[in-house]
Amino acid sequence: MELALLVYFIGMLTPIIVAVSILVFISASGLLISSVALITSLDYAEISYNRNRDGTVKASVIAERKLTGRVCKYSAISLVLSFLLLIATPSEKTAYTMVGAYAAQKIVTDPKVQETSTKVLAVINKKLDEYIKDK
């Protein structure tokens, strides 16, 4: 049952990789757009329509800058995490190789297989010794 589940999850790798790739694209786009919006909203001259009559910056402008900053921050975090997940996800070939190595390890640690391999090695060594004596 373990191997059947592993093969199932290997089959799910392609959709997972596609979904994470889409997340990388969305995060990168969000980061780019929010960075541009944040940079353009930080006008040092503070245009008059961004100010109240008393000269202070409007609360709506401050709230917009905070929201844009949060979007930028969370987009960057999402981009880094999804990119790391994309890098860490193995390809199907690598996953099947890992399953093969796991199956081989299970077979080698089986006591019956170890006993049989010992007998096979004894027969091979006996035949090799016979061939050496004949020559």
What does this structure look like?
The protein is mainly alpha-helical and 135 residues long. The chain folds into two domains: 89 residues; 45 residues. 81% of the residues lie in helices and 0% in strands. The two termini are 51 Å apart. The model has no long low-confidence stretch (mean pLDDT 85).
Number of alpha- plus pi-helical segments: 5
Please bin the fraction of helical residues: over 70%
N-to-C CA distance = 51 Å
Cα Rg: 31 Å
Count of separate structural domains: 2
Which blocks of ≥5 consecutive residues have pLDDT under 50? Answer: none
Structural class comes to mainly alpha
Strand content: under 5%
Q: Estimate the global geometry from the Cα principal axes.
A: rod-shaped
